[in-house]
Amino acid sequence: MVSAQTDSAATTTTTTTDTMMSSTATTAKVFGGRGQYKTWSIGLNVGATSQVLATGGSNDFRNKVIELGYGLSIRDQLGHNFGLQLDVRGGKVSGNNSSLGNNGNYSTKFWQATLSGVVNVATIDFIRRKNSVNFFLTAGAGLAMYNPTGVTAQGVPFDYKNGAAGGNAGTGSYVREYVVPIGAGVKFRLSDAVALNFGYTENFIDGDNFDGVKSPSNSKDHYSYGYGGLEFTLGSKSKPSLEWVNPVAMMYDELYDAALRQEVEALKGRVTNVENAVTDLKKDSDGDGVSDQFDKCPNTPAGSVVDGSGCVIVFPAAAAAADTMTGTAYSNIQFEFDSSVLRTSSYPVLDATSADLRSSGKTVEIDGYASSEGTAAHNLSLSRDRANSVKTYLVNSGVSASKLKIKAYGETNPIADNSTEEGRVANRRVAFKQR
User: What's the average model confidence in pLDDT over 196-206?
Assistant: First the structure.
């Protein structure tokens, strides 16, 4: 069974948004823990018992007789949809075989105590702020105490506890057996503290003496209990009851909270500022590859070669001559930073060198160099790659590979100061040495 509980609804003022439980305000949060709710409830119920189950099953006595049952329940709600419940029930179950033409009958008084899990499986009001109708399932186990009395089909009276006129001495005590109750029900919320329950439970006895008669198949006995009752939520009025709370509505209220919405709007503003800052970082008005925020030399002419601060690089005279020559054989070949790819401006020099080598029969040493950025090992490898790029070009143009020798010097033998950008640009080279 489950208790009557309240749900959260939002009340918005100019300064805050509270979650409302009927007429009582609360600050309960979706993930705030059980301490913010009322979880205990007590219930009373009364109903009808029968030896017949709705799901079927055999009985030693053919005709059912409706008898009175009653009970008390105490439940601790562990979550929105699950609770543990202690049930104490009593009453009487009866049956007879008058339809078979004999006077066999029984009447069993019983008491039982069980501990069950209660699961709320559905609600028809889940989209409302306050759940009003819940459907639930129960299952558990416990101990049943009972005393079967009656008359067998052979006309012999029996009384398990006190004995009978037929000579039975009786046991002097109630029969004790394990019992497993399985049930379902529906609960209607009447107020913040009261609920109306209707349920049906099938009780399976771990014995074949509940009706006082052992069947030839030694099948277990059973009985059913249909009931109605009231449940009362225990605890402070300032707290909502856990099970009647609608988590979806609570989550909406939290998201609708004015302070939270202000934080979200402030966050949107910060995101916009970041996006604008990123846009500014990308802005490059003069198109030199350095963003305006870091460009120390704005408005450089189109096509200018600039350094990391956006200022035009002034190449040493030797380097400038190498870039602008139109075919002087054996001039230095310049390379970009950390690159061994030939510049197109180097082709005239390489073509003139190739023509001279093919016509004169000379042999040359191709010496590769690098500036001082990076490790010495890396620069040595880079200088070798640069020399090989020049050799490959000359061989592809018709020069015999036997006339070309490769040598890598790395960052040694600089022709300019490596502490300046201009010097490093000049040192990224390949030089020819005639042999």
Answer: 96
Residue among 220, 184, 183 at smallest CA distance from 204 = 220
Q: How far apart are CA 33 and CA 31, in angstroms?
A: 6
Residue 389: name the closest of 360, 368, 363, 418 by CA: 368
Answer yes or no: are the C-beta atoms of 12 and 258 closer than 8 Å.
yes
Q: What is the model's pLDDT at position 304?
A: 67
Residue whose C-alpha is closest to residue 108's, from 177, 9, 167, 55? 177
CB atoms near residue 383 (< 10 Å): 28
Sign, Cα dihedral of 87, 194, 187, 80: negative
In whole angstroms, what separates CA 83 from the centre of its chain? Answer: 24
Backbone angles phi, psi at 250, to 5 degrees: -65, -45
Q: β-strand 157-159 against 175-189: which pairing, if any? A: unpaired
Of the CA atoms within 13 Å of residue 327, those in its CB half-sphere come to: 4
| pLDDT of 29 | 61
Helices and strands in the chain: count of H runs, count of E runs: 6, 17
What is the token pair recorded at 125?
A: 């009001």
What is the residue whose two structure tokens read 């104490």?
Answer: 88
Residue 30 near residue 249, CB atoms below 8 Å: no
79 and 110 in contact (C-beta within 8 Å)? no
Give the pLDDT confidence of 274-314 residue by residue, as tens digits.
Answer: 888 888 777 877 777 777 777 778 877 776 677 767 787 76
Q: Within 13 Å and on the Cβ side, how many CA atoms surround 394? A: 31
The pLDDT of residue 162:
78
More confident residue, 56 or 1: 56
Asked if 160 contacts 121 with a C-beta cutoff of 8 angstroms, the reply is: no
For residue 81, give Cα distances in angstroms to 37, 62, 105, 119, 138.
14, 40, 43, 6, 12
- Which token pair is 343? 């510049």
d(CA 393, CA 386): 11
Cβ atoms of residues 71 and 200 within 8 Å: no
> What residue ranges in 16-132 does DSSP mark as E strands?
17-21, 24-26, 40-50, 63-65, 67-77, 82-96, 105-123
Q: Phi first, then psi: what are they for 366, rounded to 5°?
A: -100, 110
Cβ of 413: how many Cβ atoms within 10 Å?
Answer: 10
